Amino acid sequence: MNIQFYKYQGAGNDFVLVDNRENVVDHQNPELIAKLCDRRFGVGGDGMMFLQLKEGYDFEMVYYNSDGQPSSMCGNGGRCIVAFAKYLGVIENETEFLAVDGPHYAKISNTGDWVSLQMIFEGSVKRDGEAYVLNTGSPHYIQLVDDLKSKNVFHDGGAIRNNATYREKGINVNFIEPLNDGYFVRTFERGVEDETYACGSGVTACAIAMAIHHNKTGHVDTPVKVLGGDLIIHFDRDGNEFSNIFLEGPAKLVFEGTVESPLTP
To answer: Is residue 199 among the annotated active site residues?
Structure first.
């Protein structure tokens, strides 16, 4: 069987997408997904998504990490699947879809390449030494550092993700440094087990953590530079309450094609 796929990227965070509204592809197949996400033997991507029908919503987002395992929420993946839904004609400029962490509202530009996605924040923030730990659809560890450009994120992030505290369930590790009126962020992602060019839920977590760190309240706009481009996070903060959390940035179709399933090395 041939699988029709679409390759999208959001600030360098790249994904393999499949229109599965007719349930043609049985995606409960970690080996297949891992091969499709392989950058040498497959299409290549940080993850893979299936757009499916879901009663009461415009569509459902089913997401897998590049290792083939089901994942928690991916912010840039969410923005990319919204762009994909518009490309397919499933939505126009607004949508409400279902992801693994619950319903998400999103808006997309008329050109279809700029998406504003409402994010979910569970509300609790913990400290691990000087670092912040919180969940914005996925669990994140946020550490302020100096000279982030020179940091070995693969080594240092992997060491934190695999330490005794986080080894079993895993955690995404974000290193953050002030930059102009915002921040520069680099992320080691669990499931990918490497640094990625961007992490949407990660930069959202970073923006919330920095609002707490600097005691910012009211309406907060946080521009973030990542390896793959620029993202913006908006939210309102009243005491310990965060609301209207939106992640904004580019989401672009790179190419499309067909691939035989299953792949062979």
So the answer is: yes
